[in-house]
Amino acid sequence: MDNRLFINLKPGPTFLDRLTGKTKVRLFFVLILLLIATWDIRLIAPLFVLSIIGLVSIRPNPKKMTVTLVIILIMNLFNLLLMFLVEPDYGRGVVGGSNVIFRFTDFYIVTKETMWYFLVRLMKFMATFIFSLTFIQCITPSEMAAGLYSVKVPYKVCTIVSLAFRYIPDITRDFNNIRISMQARGLELDAKRVGIGTRLKQYVLILAPLVISSFDRVGMIANAMDLRGFGKLKKRTYYAEHEDVKGDRILAPIILLLLALFLVIVVCLIFFPPAFQVWCPWIK
Amino acid sequence: MSEKKSVGSLILGKWNTKTIVGIAIGAALFAVLMNYGGIKIFTNTSLTTAMIVDVIVGALFGPLPAALTAFLGNFLADLIGGWGFWFDWSIGNAVLGFFVGLIPVYARKFDEGVFGVKEIIIYAITVIVGNIVAFGAVTPLLTYLFYSQELTITWGQATAALIGNASVQLVLGIPLLLFLASRNKKSSNLAKED
How far apart are CA A5 and CA A136, in angstroms? Predict the structure, then answer.
C-alpha cells in the first residue's frame, strides 16, 4: 500500500504527459462527469476501454500498477458483496426485473438483473479509477493549478488544490512512519486482535503527532510563499503552462464534443427520465 | 488582538497565505486519513478519523475554510481512493465542515485558550446538528438529484456516517479542542499590568 501514490513533479515523455495542464484538467473533468452521469453500458464500456488505453499509453511501472489495480478491484468487489448482503434483489429497482438464477434462501437470491447492475457498476467505478490514476500519473501539481485556473477557478483555490496534491505523499509517508514506529513500540492495530473502541483510541496516538507535524509546516510554507509575493495581485500566470502542442489542438474539439454529450445526457435524464436507471439488453 | 470582529468576518475567515496553506494541508491530511486512518463499518463508509481535520481547521481558521477543506479533502480522497467520485458526499462533508468549523464564532477567545463547559456544549450541538443536516438531508437529497439512485443504500450509509462521524467528532474532537486551547494558553500567559 505504501507505493500506491506516486505523484510526479516533472512531466514524462509520452503523449498525455506532454499536453498542457489546461487540456489534462478539462479532459479529465469532462470524462468524470460523463461517467457520473451515465449508467448506460453502451457508453461506459467504450470509456472503460479508453481508460485502459490511456493508462497503458503513459507506460506506468507494470508491477506497481497491477498491484494497485488488483487492490482496488478487490475493494470494489467487496463493496458489491456488502451491497448484495444488504439488498440481494437490488436489480429490481434499478434495472427493472428479477429473473432468479440461484436461490440461497427466500431473501438471498441471485438475479440476472442484480448481476448486470453489479457488472455495470464495477465497470463504471474501475473506469473512473483508471482515469483518476492516469490523471494523477501524468499531471504535476503546478499543471493542475494552471489547468484549474484555465477553467476560471479563483487562483487561491487553485493554489490550495495544488498544494494539497503536492503534500499528500509527504503526509502519507509521515502517517506510515508514525504508524510503524508506534507498532514497533507495541501498539496493536490488527483488526483481529483488538476491538473497534481500542483501535480508535490507538488511532489517536498516531493522529496526534501527525496533526502536529502537518500543521507545523503551515507557518513555514506560508512564509516562503509570502516572501515570493503570493497573493499580491488579482491575476497570475503559471510557469508550468506552455504553448499548445499538437495534441492539445486535436483534443480541444473532442473535449467540447464530450461536454455537449454530457449536457445532452443530463437534459435527457431530467426531461425524459427512463423507467429504470440502468439500461439492460433483455428488458423491453 | 482586536476583540470586535463581526460574525460575518469570522465566518469568512481571514484569507491570507497562512489560511490558504492551512486549508491545503488540512485537505491533504483529510484525504490521507480518509484512505488509511479509518475502520470500515458499512459499504463505502467507515469510522474515519478524517472527520477530526474539519474540527482543527475550523478552530484555527473558521467555518468557511473548514468547509473548503472537507470538500477538497473528500475530492482528493476520491481521486486516490478508487471508489468513484461522490460529489454529493463531498458537498455533505463541506456542510458538516461549515457547522463544526463555527468554533471561532462562538468561542471568541479560543485564541487565548478559553474553551469551557459552555463552549463544549455548543460544540456538541453544532456537531450533532451539522451531521444531521449534512448526512440526513443534504447528501441524500443530492444523491437523489445527481444519481437518481435508490435511496435504501444511501440511507444506510448516511445513518452510519451520521453516527460514526458524530461520535468521532465528539469522542476525539473535544479532547483535541481542549488540547489546542491549552496550547494557545501557553503562548499567552503574560499577565497584563494595570
Answer: 9
The answer to whether the Cβ–Cβ distance between A129 and B84 falls below 8 Å is yes
Cβ contact (<8 Å) for A36 and B36?
Answer: no
- Give contacts of B39 with chain A, Cβ < 8 Å: 191, 196, 199-200, 203
Question: How big is the CA angle at B90 (ends A73 and B165), to the nearest 5 degrees?
Answer: 90
Of A86, A164, A214, the CB nearest to B76: A164
**Residue B193: pLDDT band by 50, 70, 90 thresholds?**
low
Question: Minimal Cα–Cα distance from A160 to chain B, Å?
Answer: 5
- In terms of Cα–Cα distance, which of B56, B36, B58 is closest to B48? B36
Q: Residue A205 carries which DSSP code?
A: H
Which alpha helices (DSSP H) does chain B contain, by range? Answer: 7-12, 17-36, 51-61, 63-81, 87-100, 103-106, 117-131, 139-147, 151-171, 173-186
Contacting residues of B for A125, CB less than 8 Å apart: 82-84
Domain residue extents for chain A: 1-140+242-284, 154-239
Residues of A in contact with B168 (CB under 8 A): 200
Write out the H or E segment, with its range, that includes residue A163.
Answer: helix A155-184
Q: In this predicted model, what pLDDT tens digit does every residue of A71-84 receive, in sequence order?
A: 888 888 887 887 88
Q: B56 and A157 in contact by Cβ < 8 A?
A: no
Chain A contact set for B20 (CB, 8 A): 156, 159-160, 163, 222, 225, 231
Residue B21: the pLDDT is 92
The answer to whether the Cβ–Cβ distance between B21 and A156 falls below 8 Å is: no
> pLDDT tens digits, residue range A137-155?
888 888 989 999 998 888 8
The separation between CA A209 and the C-alpha centre of its own chain, rounded to angstroms, equals 28
For chain A, the residue count is 284
CATH architecture assignment, domain B7-185: Orthogonal Bundle (1.10)
A105 Ramachandran zone, left/alpha/beta (phi>0; psi -120 to 50): beta
Please name the residues in contact with B163: beta carbons below 8 A apart, sequence gap of 6 or more: none
> Which among A91-100, A169-178, B32-41 has the top mean pLDDT?
A169-178
Instruction: Kindly list the distances between the CA atom of residue A80 and the CA atoms of A70, A90, A115, in Å, as whole numbers in the listed order.
Output: 15, 11, 10
Domain range summary for chain B, segments of one domain joined by +: 7-185
Tens digits of residue pLDDT in A169-200 = 888 888 889 888 888 888 777 766 777 777 77
The verdict on ipTM greater than 0.90 is no
